[in-house]
Amino acid sequence: MMLKFDVEPNQKTTFRLTSQKSRHGVSVTATANQYFGLWSTYPLTSDFVCIEPWWGIADSEHSTGFLRDKQDISRLQCGEDFLANFKIKFF
């Protein structure tokens, strides 16, 4: 599953997952990411779920294969910097 957000520069987005059996869980907060990837081993059962902040996405099956056509790619001008970070909290 991929979740997409409209974000402004330096905007923080938090994804929170809480257990149905207890009040425990995890939250992932990232800055200026447009996507969160959420995956597990479905249809197999497993003891985990992966939550990943993404600053870009993989190509779709309809991709041209050209970097210039890549969906939601980050572009930097010569000399520009891009700083990305995220925070994970367990509760």
Provide structural commentary.
- With about 90 residues, the protein is mainly beta.
- The protein is built from no helices and 6 strands.
- The protein has strands spanning about 1-5, 10-20, 25-30, 35-40, 50-55, 85-90.
- The strands form 2 sheets. Strands 1-4-5 form a 3-stranded antiparallel beta sheet, with no helix packed on it.
- Strand 2 and strand 3 (about 25-30) form a beta hairpin.
- The protein starts with a strand and ends with a strand.
Summary?
By secondary structure, the protein is an all-beta fold. Helix content is 0%, strand content 35%. The strands form two sheets. It has a three-stranded antiparallel sheet with strand order 1-4-5, with no helix packed on it.
What's the structural blueprint in terms of helices and strands?
Layout: E1 2-4, E2 12-18, E3 25-31, E4 35-39, E5 50-54, E6 86-90
Antiparallel strand pairs: 1-4, 2-3, 3-6, 4-5
What descriptive keywords fit this protein?
mainly beta; three-stranded antiparallel sheet; 91 residues; 6 strands
Strand-pairing-aware structural class: mainly beta
State which percent range the strand residues make up.
35-45%
Order of helices and strands: EEEEEE
Shape: flat
Distance between the termini: 23 Å
Total helical segments: 0
Helix content: under 10%
Radius of gyration, Cα only, in angstroms?
16 Å
Q: Kindly report the spatial arrangement of strands forming the biggest sheet.
A: 1-4-5
Give the biggest beta sheet.
3 strands, antiparallel
Strand elements, count? 6
The stretches of 5 or more residues where confidence is low (pLDDT under 50) are none
Task: Please tell me the overall pLDDT.
Answer: 87
